[in-house]
Amino acid sequence: MSESVNGRLKRPSLREQMADNKHSLSILRRLALYMNPYKGQLILSLVLVLIVTALGLVKPILIGSAIDTCITGELAQSRTPDERFAILIRDALCYTAVLLALFFLSRKEHVIMQETGQKIIYDLRNDLFEHTEGLSMQFFDTTPVGKIVTRITNDAESINEVFSQTLVLLFQNLTKVLGFAVIMLVLNIRMALWSFAALPAAIVLTFLFRTLSRRAFRNTRNKLTALNTFLSEHISGMQIIQLFAQEARKDMEFRERSDDLYKASFRELMVNAFFRPLIYMVSVIALVIVVIVGSRNVLSGAITLGTLYIFLQYIVSFFNPIEELAEQFSTIQSAVASAEKIFTLFDETPVVRERPDPVSLPAINGRIEFDHVWFAYHDEDWVLKDVSFVIEPGQRVAFVGATGAGKSSILNLIGRYYDIQRGVIRLDGVDIRDLSLDQLRGAIGQVQQDVFLFSGDIRRNIKLLDDQITDDEMIRAATDVNATRFIDFLSRGYSEPVGERGASLSSGQRQLLSFARTLAHNPTILILDEATSNIDTETEQWIQEALVRLMEGRTSIMVAHRLSTIQHADMILVMHHGRIRERGTHQELLAMNGIYKKLYLIQLAGE
Length: 607
Fold this sequence. Notes:
The chain is α/β, with parallel strands linked by helices.
């Protein structure tokens, strides 16, 4: 695989080229699998292409025949003017019929291929997004969003042209080249060989162009991905950029990446710009050869003027398919470069996998047990160390501790967004690794510190397009968390538009919607991860009023820095450096005169 060195494309070795070709064929074979459901349309399209190509080859023959039979030559001289006129009318009608057939058949073939190409890309894009949804959180922790977006949009769309146009044109041009060659050989072998004199130069140029364009296209795709990744990250963080007055520096960084893409695209453009004129020069040389040799043969009587006309038309048309073939190879190389990125994403496998035959519980009661759990995000950099506890159904448990103590990691492990390295986590006595992910996560309702809202309206963000949730249930959930205190004052109520990430709402309103969304799905286990940290005093009071009702009958797990919000918990677990150091009720922990009491006194002094 070629690399960019100091702005130039490094020339690959022969072994690297062979490996690259093998890899490209493998990519094309994987792409071809998406064509299987549409074999009928593709075969019909190829049949139409054969007919269209044959009709295109017939056109010069009709005119050449008319020249020999009606204008020059012995046959023309042997006929009366009326006979020659009648033959011309007949040939003109045939030529018109060929043109009409070409128009309708070409249009039909074009429509079939465009429709088929769109269907194939539709399937590919949907499969790619579905696969991405199934990947583990560890993948999203390490992969930029812009990179994923580029794969599903830009890279998928760049493949569209291959299926909708290039494959058919490639077949058509190959057929044309072979058809031209066969007919010229049949008409006059010697003239045909003279016509092919410049063909080796065209073949060498085509293979050279194919090699250069492949490397150029791959480099362009890499630079485009880098630019999209930069844009996605920095547009999302625009508030921070403006807050720290980093616009000038970020603008410079963007210009650097944009310049890289410009240079890569320019190199790609130059490859095309050199190839087309060179092929045109070769075709002109071939045309000159045919004119000189053909004129001499016409004067000597070796061939007729009509035959020379056919050769001239064919030699002009002969190099056009060769030029287009190289461009189609170029398009295929671009598609291969994009497909390589796409299948790299397809080859990503989820770290958290569901068993082939998962255990299905008749009902989830909400008993959670951590049995000597060890967990690390990377290698043995342990976030949790030998953690054990039991939460009984309906119990209210809170985790407290300093930042980095492992509180949020415990919440992520309950939903099995990551897998532990040692120990067991059980839900109702069953190892969560044996449970269906849908059943496990469907039983959990989680309210996070950073609330994410989708573009749409209030109704969509509460229901999440779940048709099983009625409007009455939605309103009841919003009422329980006091979200109706602001929804009722919106001009459109539950149909009020919500911008990207809920930018049109305050942080407190977004948090209330998150509560309503969680309750509307009626979870058995309720997880509150710093759920009141972004809420003002009045809004927090509304939520505190609802918390008692929300937790009734549910296993409730809370993480909070503000100890005043979890004093009512049945059990409080104090985390310190990945271990549980203390456990008990609020009063019991204060009596221990340990870590919890120190945290409490510090907050009390601050207040």
